[in-house]
Design brief:
- This protein is of the alpha+beta class.
- The N terminus is likely disordered.
- It has one domain.
- β1 and β2 form a beta hairpin.
- The strands form three sheets. Strands 4, 5, 6 and 7 form a four-stranded antiparallel β-sheet that branches. It has a two-stranded antiparallel ribbon with strand order 1-2.
């Protein structure tokens, strides 16, 4: 006989699994230590010129530093929030800092964007 407690526990585990699967970034490892990555394992970066919850990287900057795109209906989860970019698209942020990849990284674990542009770009770390 299935008890209410078992049903509640199963439901709670199912819900938490969905929440974890919905996180926009994963944990990777680079020479800098634990690093946030996108679903393909590419390193994510933050930009010093961004203000809390606002991207300053647009135009050619965004071509070189593609924003970690979020769906229009994406919901914040834990340390992750969604910011609206100047063009109206949505981007994931971690602890208020918008997240980007770097076009010159060619494989998971690369961190060639760290400290680029006079040290204004940084590997995103938890």
């Amino acid at each position: 006989m299935i008890t209410r407690a078992l049903i509640a526990t199963t439901l709670a585990l199912s819900i938490s699994g969905v929440a974890l699967a919905a996180e926009p970034a994963r944990m990777g490892e680079t020479s800098k230590g634990p690093t946030l990555t996108n679903a393909q394992g590419m390193t994510l970066y933050t930009f010093d010129k961004d203000s809390d919850g606002k991207s300053a990287c647009n135009g050619q900057c965004a071509a070189n530093w593609p924003p970690l795109a979020a769906a229009a209906n994406a919901k914040a989860s834990g340390a992750y929030t969604v910011v609206t970019r100047d063009d109206g698209s949505h981007q994931w942020a971690y602890k208020g800092q918008p997240l980007y990849t770097w076009v010159k990284d060619t494989k998971p674990g690369d961190i060639t964007g760290d400290e680029v542009n006079n040290g204004t770009w940084h590997v995103a770390q938890p």
